[in-house]
Structures are given as structure tokens and as C-alpha cells.
Design brief:
Number of helices: 10
Distance between the termini: 68 Å
Shape: globular
Number of strands: 7
Radius of gyration: 21 Å
Largest sheet: 7 strands, mixed
């Protein structure tokens, strides 16, 4: 099983429906707060079930929801039918979005599941889609040394606040024996420290800085805000300058 196949199936990462809704509502509200202009075009890449996507759509001009899982896209299409301000896409469909047209791209809890090559391809694509003043938020980045126990502690704190603590306790036991834990142990998750993610973004034509807070409930994970880097102007060689001058008769 791959991560794509895992997310395309029926997962057990949420303790119950209340947990799932609380998670997506919080993410949606935090994305909506990042929208600077009412007519902004926003992409939520790796959106998952996006149960509160309407909150983001109400804050912007147009919302693109992109996910690799076909079952997720089908459920989104059925639930959001009639919302002309929301477009649902598979990753390969992003080529239909005009280059330089997106004001905000959010990639939340995604890059840990990508291979290094897939991540580089993603960064190239996201950069191409950003407008001149557009921003790319990569969130829920896992730093080295943060493991399942830290994630469990963050979940229980979130659950106690939002009223599903006992369900979360039972959910953690279920997760221990789940495909997710086995797949995480076999495939691993990509982890980055601050410097590594900034260098990676810079290598792919983006200028990045640490962003606070992280999206969602897990404050031990990190978020980074990036913009398109200005490419250095090409400088003509001395020989080229001499040739140009001779052609002009200087």
C-alpha cells in the first residue's frame, strides 16, 4: 500500500465525527484568516474531506480544492454541488489553472507523505501558479525528533478542549493497530528542520520564512510562508557587450 492508496480508502485517523469536524473547521477558519483580498483565488492542495470549505470560499473570490484521492473528490463534488465559487481538482488537473493566477496556496499536512522528487515537482508547480504577490503556505511540517507520542499528546489536548477526549483515547488505541501506523513505520514520513525547508524552497525559486502559528492543533509542527523569489537579472558577458557595440558602430 502507498500513501495515496491509504488516503483513497476508509481511514480511521479521526476518533469520531466530532473530531473530524472540529479539525476541518479549525483549518478552514485559519486558512480564511490568511486571505487578504475578497477577490483572492485560493488553492487548498491536499485538502482532504474539507468539511468546512465553505468558510474559506466565503472569504475569497474562488477556491480550488485539490486532492489525490478519487473517493475524496467524489464526496466533495456531491457535497459542494451548486457552489460555483469552488472547483474540485485532481493534482494532474492543476495544469488547467492559469500560471500566475493564485493569490494563496495552502499545502497543509502534505509534504511529509511525498517523495523527495514529488515534493520538488510540487514546489515547481506551486511556484508557477502563484501570482506576483501570491503566497505559499506549507504547514504541518514535521521536525526531526517529533514522533507519535508528541502527536498523541497534542491530539489529547485538542480533544479535551473540543469535547471528544474519551473518543480520542479510544482512537489512539485503534490507530496503534491500524494501517496508518504500519504504513508510517514502513514508508516513513519526510522530516525537515527550519534550515532544510528554507533551503529547499530557495532552491526551487521561493523565498521563505517561518510562519506562526502552525495550522491546526499540533504546535510542535511547523509552518513556512513563501513567495516567488526574484530571479537575478542576466548579465551580458564582456564579449557580448563588445559585439553589441560593434554592431551599433561604437
Amino acid at each position: 500500500m502507498s500513501w495515496v492508496k491509504f488516503w483513497n480508502g476508509k481511514t480511521t485517523i479521526y476518533a469520531n465525527a466530532r473530531h473530524e469536524m472540529a479539525h476541518y473547521r479549525r483549518i478552514a477558519d485559519e486558512i480564511a484568516a490568511l486571505v487578504l483580498e475578497r477577490n483572492a483565488r485560493v488553492l487548498d492542495f491536499g485538502c482532504g474531506a474539507a468539511l468546512a470549505a465553505e468558510r474559506v470560499a466565503d472569504a475569497c473570490g474562488h477556491l480550488y480544492l485539490c486532492d489525490s484521492a478519487a473517493t475524496t473528490r467524489s464526496a466533495l463534488a456531491a457535497r459542494l454541488e451548486g457552489r460555483n465559487d469552488i472547483t474540485i481538482l485532481a493534482p494532474e488537473d492543476l495544469t488547467s489553472v492559469p500560471d500566475g493566477s493564485l493569490d494563496l496556496i495552502v499545502v497543509n499536512s502534505v509534504i511529509q507523505y511525498l517523495t523527495p522528487d514529488d515534493l520538488r515537482r510540487g514546489l515547481t508547480l506551486w511556484r508557477e501558479k502563484l501570482s506576483g504577490q501570491g503566497r505559499l503556505l506549507i504547514a504541518d511540517v514535521i521536525p526531526p525528533g517529533i514522533g507519535p507520542l508528541s502527536d498523541a499528546a497534542a491530539l489529547l489536548k485538542f480533544a479535551a478542549k473540543d469535547g471528544f477526549f474519551f473518543a480520542a483515547c479510544a482512537g489512539l488505541v485503534k490507530t496503534f493497530f491500524s494501517d496508518y501506523r504500519q504504513l508510517r513505520a514502513r514508508l516513513g514520513l519526510q522530516m525537515f528542520n527550519d534550515a532544510e525547508i528554507v533551503v529547499l524552497l530557495e532552491e526551487n525559486g521561493l523565498t521563505a520564512r517561518r510562519h506562526f502559528p502552525n495550522l491546526g492543533h499540533n504546535s510542535s509542527r511547523m509552518a513556512f510562508m513563501a513567495t516567488r523569489a526574484r530571479l537575478p537579472r542576466q548579465t551580458a558577458s564582456r564579449a557580448e557587450v563588445a559585439d553589441q557595440r560593434s554592431l551599433r558602430g561604437h
